[in-house]
Design goal:
single chain, alpha/beta, Rossmann fold, seven-stranded parallel sheet, 8 helices
Length: about 290
């Protein structure tokens, strides 16, 4: 029930970027103890960027329990990645962990190459990894910060998708994580919100481009979700009241996102492409 989920105020809990799961209070719920699979992705091979923690971890757990092998791309959060890998293997599926910075085009191509080497093909691609930081003034955003945000959030999505498509069979599914920020941008997240708008547009065009290949492309637009990125990138007053701004008056837990990704990845969604699905606690996309 919704009443069982944590609500603000939360404790002040600053972290260094990109943040870790273990340091969060309360600890995010990725569905470790609750998600039960029903065979919806049996035999599928999935790649998830940012799969070590947060939404990516919840999706990895769900995919594995639905029967998929899972390749996890992550930056440098080795402890979180190993925990996710262990949960995938406990579900009886193969886990491959691949660290590195997706802001590099060469790394993007290398991770796809490694996934194909390990799995032979890619049935599901989840472009989920993202960088964000908060700024009160445009003068505070350096050229390097602006460029890194775009390289990580949207350029990498292009490079990874371009490399993966030749290895995706008919029936393949690409799921890109956008955000409520694409439609309702916050002034403190100028660079991040701009990339999320680009992701939503990229996905809509990609769905049309890949339709003849039988590959679907959709995006998921979360609102406030309780992940390590929050205490690692937001001021303490925002963290303490995180999620208060939506009608449900709480942040979503990563496990509340995972079923949407499962649906979009499954063959049951065979006629769903070019869509953006909101997970926003009642706040509508404009």
């Amino acid at each position: 029930m919704s009443s069982d989920f944590p609500k603000p105020p939360f404790a002040d809990q600053p972290q260094d970027m990109p943040g870790t799961t273990e340091a969060m209070q309360p600890r995010p719920d990725h569905g470790e103890d609750t998600y039960q699979g029903s065979g919806r992705l049996v035999g599928k091979k999935a790649v998830i960027t940012g799969g070590d923690s947060g939404i990516g971890r919840a999706v990895a757990i769900a995919f594995a329990r639905e029967g998929a092998d899972v390749f996890i791309s992550y930056l440098n959060e080795h402890d979180d990645a190993r925990d996710t890998g262990r949960l995938i293997e406990q579900a009886g599926q193969k886990a491959v962990l691949f660290p590195g910075d997706i802001s590099s085009p060469d790394h993007c191509r290398a991770l796809v190459g490694k996934a194909v080497e390990e799995f032979g093909r890619i049935d599901i691609l989840v472009n989920n990894a993202a960088h964000q930081d908060t700024f009160n003034s445009i003068d505070e955003i350096s050229d390097e910060e602006w460029e890194y945000t775009f390289r990580t959030n949207i350029h990498a999505m292009f490079f990874i998708t371009k490399a993966a498509v030749p290895h995706m069979p008919e029936g393949g599914s690409i799921i890109n994580t956008t955000s409520i920020q694409a439609d309702n941008p916050s002034e403190q997240l100028l660079a991040y919100a701009a990339t999320k708008g680009a992701i939503q547009n990229f996905t809509a065009g990609l769905a049309q481009m890949l339709a003849e290949k039988g590959i679907r492309a959709n995006s998921v637009a979360p609102g406030p979700i309780w992940t390590p990125l929050i205490p690692a990138t937001m001021p303490s007053e925002k963290v303490q009241q995180f999620g208060k701004q939506v009608p449900m008056q709480r942040p979503g837990q990563p496990k509340e996102c995972a079923p949407i990704f499962v649906m979009l990845a499954s063959d049951e969604a065979s006629y769903v492409s070019g869509a953006t699905i909101a997970i926003t606690g009642g706040k509508p996309l404009l």
